[in-house]
Write a structure and sequence with these properties.
This protein has 138 residues and is mainly α. The chain is 62% helix and 3% strand. The protein has a two-stranded antiparallel ribbon.
Length: 138
């Protein structure tokens, strides 16, 4: 398996350094993570994402992806593998929504913008279903 520098960096930081500020994950997603809420300090994270520089559109896109990766790792710490899967998928879907919103706000292409709108609708529906399933697991 080929590992990119980004993958290696994410694995090096996970899950302890990436556990801060999970985005509205139900408690069941973070209850088993001893590092949830940990201060990120100078880990290169700011405002929920990685400051990569560049224009506003690319910063928005990268910030959404950084938050998604951090929160997926937090959700994956649940002891039950089914719960961990669903808890990781919620931020994955929210990351797709964040990226789609960046496209809508900053993009120019009508097809890409229409795709972004479709992604938002589908991902919001699936997030609601996952949250309902998690609630039933309590």
């Amino acid at each position: 398996m080929k590992r990119t520098l980004f993958t290696i960096a994410m694995l090096t930081l996970a899950p302890s350094a990436l556990a801060q500020d999970a985005i509205d994950l139900p408690a069941i997603c973070t209850a088993d993570n001893p590092h949830a809420g940990m201060d990120m300090g100078d880990m290169g994270m700011d405002g929920g994402g990685m400051s990569m520089g560049g224009d506003a559109a690319h910063v928005d896109l990268m910030d959404g992806m950084a938050a998604m990766n951090r929160d997926m790792m937090v959700g994956g710490t649940a002891k039950d593998i089914d719960v961990a899967f669903v808890c990781s998928m919620i931020p994955h879907h929210r990351g797709a929504i964040d990226m789609a919103q960046a496209q809508i706000a900053q993009g120019d292409d009508p097809w890409a913008t229409a795709l972004a709108e479709t992604i938002i609708a589908a991902q919001e529906k699936e997030i609601a279903e996952m949250l309902e399933w998690l609630e039933a697991q309590k």
